[in-house]
Amino acid sequence: MARSTIARPVNNVRHGWQLFRNRKAFWQMMRETFSGHYKMSFLTILIAMLAIAYIIFPFDLIPDYIPVVGWIDDGLVFYLLLRRLAKETQRYNRFKAMERKQTNPLQ
Description:
The protein is mainly alpha-helical. It has helices spanning 7-21, 23-35, 42-56, 69-103.
């Protein structure tokens, strides 16, 4: 008999919570990306554009006019977008730490 645990759903919620906790870094990353100081990975840009287009446009794998079931694929795409943005925010934080280390080598 298989044991059921709640560890998997908690891990799934962790990505959204991590992005929420790092929201200041996320918005700073977005500002620096648009100003040209920081370059996001091509994969993140591609996933973000496709995810937003998939959620907004009515052409889905499962049509949205079917209640609840039609929103599952949109939710999955949104979840994958959150995961990718959380990883990109971590990458940005490492970038900023390396930038600080280069400008202040004594630390």
